[in-house]
Amino acid sequence: MLALQLLCNGIVTGCALGIVAISFSFVYSTTKIFHVAHAGVYTLGGYVAWSLLAHGFPAPVAFLVAVAACTALGALIQTGLYARLERRRATHLVVLIASLGVLAVIQNIVAAVYTANILQFDLPWGAKVFTVVGNVRLTVTQLLTVVCSLAAYAAVMWFSHGTILGKQIRAVASNPFLAEITRLRPRRVHVYVMAIASALVCVPGVLVPLDFGLQPYNGITPLLTATIAMIAGGVGSITGAFVLAIVIAELQNMSLLFIPGEWSIGITFFIFVIFMLFRPTGLFAAAR
Amino acid sequence: MRHLLRYGIGLVAVMLAVTGARADTVRFGAILPLTGPGAMIGTQQMRGIQFAVDKANAAGGVHGNKIEVLFEDNQAKPDQSILSFNKLVDLEHVPMIFTAYSGPSLAMAPLATRKKILLVNAGAQADKLATASPYLVNTLPTIGDEVKVISKYLISEGKTKGAILYENDAAGIAGRDDFVKYFPEAGGTILSQEPAQFGQTDYRPSLLKLADAKPQVMLVSITAGLLQMAQQYKQLGMKFTVAGTTFFADPATVADPSSEGFVHTQVRIDAPPELEAEFKAKYGVNMEFFVRQYYNATQIVLAVADKLLSEGKPLTGQSMHDELFTIGKFNGLIPLEFKSNTATVPLDIDVMKGGKDVTIKQMSAD
Amino acid sequence: MDFWLSYLTLASIYVLLGLSTNLLVGIAGIFSVSQAAVFGVGAYIVAFFLMNDVMSFLPALAIAAVCCVALNIVLTLPALRVAGDYFVVTSFGIQLLATAVFTNWTGGTGGANGLPGIPPADLFGKALEDTSSETILCVGGMVLGCLVFWLVMRAPFGRLLRAIREDELAVAASGKSVLRAKVSAAALAGAFAGSAGGLYATFLSFIDPSSFDLDSSILLLTMVVVGGARTLAGSIIGPFLLLALPQILTLVEIPTTIAAAARQLIYGVLLIVFMLFRPQGLAGEKL
Q1: Which of A85, B153, B156, C27 has the fewest CB atoms within 10 Å, i.e. the most exposed one?
Q2: What CATH class is the domain B2-139+271-333?
């Protein structure tokens, strides 16, 4: 059944998008930085994993090294760039443009090294198809995406509410000024946040290209959609971001049943703009 | 104010430096997408040209002159193309420019007419290109020609109910419009059509929606992401025939088992094995379709230049244009003839079987 | 010669856009990445009128400017309801929505194929066919725009805008309408952007959605930041420099296979370096 298949596909892409949204939200709610270079970290993760696989390393190793690379990159961007800008009291616009610069650098290094061609992962088991309820067909990669994304979501929730560092991060996010005065050391917390967010975004960064192929310039669209999910869900709410990401993915998929395909992206943004006019704080806004 | 003056002078100085004089070589231009979503194809095209030029130079050049091609990156954008066009023509005085992609080519066409610069296109196939400018020549058939042929073939095979998957950009839409026009003319019906964004590779929603209309054949007009489309088609368990034009000839897609049974028209352009090996040794990748097309186009241009120089005539856009049509028939990688601004070339119908493209019928695009 | 003229023409058009962006972002403090959408609307309106022979260039330009004034007011109203950072994403959304409309509304904008064959601008019945007259028109437009900007900034309105930038609360407390000032600034920005669009359409004689997408909006922002925010000089230097940059970068010898990516990379590095070491741009005030 068409609708059911579209629904399931929406869940798959929504879950991946959800992790991008959560990781971006993590950075934004804590540091208030609109970290567009996050799209670059997302892109790099996929390419690192692909490289290792192409050199014969087993899949788990490739994945872990990719995660490590992303984490390192995220921490580097924070300490090397954002922290410096913050010390100079740079405005949001300046930081945004610097972040854009980083994105351009990452994307073009990748394009120069790997060429602009769409690269395919060589993992035959990923394409194996399972037929689940009611004639819906899903590949192993798609199922894996859902499982890993849900696991990552659960992990972030546990981390944020159950661990000391998680609580520190939430504290810094909710009141940076106070955090500065107490011994929470916001600067160091920012590094942790960037590192964790970058590690997180590597999950969809590897799984989505596994399904759809790798391209150097492809990170910005998921990032933008993810930020919409973050804002619509309420900045600071992890669940909000994740749920809204799935909602948006479903909107884009299911809207095909009613309107011509070329308008599905347009409709999503249109709904978002209207939403912003009437409920700018989002659906699940964190209590202030 | 002092800022303006300071930076203004600096800028002019740099710009003057850019326009430095170069010595006695024959120079042509090429405006291709070298970054951005079109870069995958643009890079192939650039390599095709460069490979042909290097070979020619190694063999002594054109009538003893070295050849140089100046590449400009337009990111497949029309306004960048116009800036690059003016730069190549005004500052570098090139008589001829290689172009690619329908949008930029159409944007530059009026300029080419006005300035009498030969524009050679070996990649774009929009129908409008056939008549966009007397100075724009196409070395491959337009999409319309290919669509006519594949439509006739499909109807003859009994596949009369079609659905269209097209890329939402100039090239894809041109193909879609042609399918909408010629498939019914050949006796079929178009049940529905779905777009895909250029550069994105999630085809599942569009495929599903198309499949819902229960077509016998899906007519495809996309230029990138074919492998992903084929794989998703297979994963979703779809069974209808998939048909397309020369865009299908992507080696990765052909080799992949999910494309089994895909049928398409193919502009016949083969390279001899020694040439392919030489290319592979130099660039590390296979000599793909657009490489061959632009290699072939470069050979045509060099043949024209050679003839002009050996007759002692100057190399201008106008002389090259006139000489191209005077010579008329060329024998590069394939035999082709310019009876109009669009070359007449052999056109095959191929089907993908067992990882290879197999020709089942040969036709001529007339 | 034509190369220099076309560079000058395009730069003039982008200076108008720079003034527009500076007014909106630098002076009114409304962070917008949807200026390219407004630019596009102006271009498509003028193209439509000229191609369908409805009216000549100047009236078409005037109508485009007015429409863009209205559009900008409508688009920036949410900015004033919504906190600064949220508006960034709304603005992204508006820009992407506009691109979707430009690409898919084939009836109005020609869709992805764009609108080829736009007639050249005409002044008082005489068509401007060759490059030099087009250049004079656009440079004239630029000079006019700069004059308007300069006069506005010196007028009480300009001082009010500056005061708002310094301390919005104080201005509001003194009884002046902050909302009205910001909306007026946005309106003026719209007029600049719409006019630039009309000039662009007639100069290139071909427009398509790719000239008015998110990348273009970001380029505009970059021009303003690198050239210098909030100043007239910055609005001029930024466009001239950034348009020239790809050409300047071709001076650097890089192997052809990675040349284009390498140049974009250098561009990205320049942005980072600029933001780190000279965030006020070449000729601007600190943002």
Answers
A1: B156
A2: alpha beta
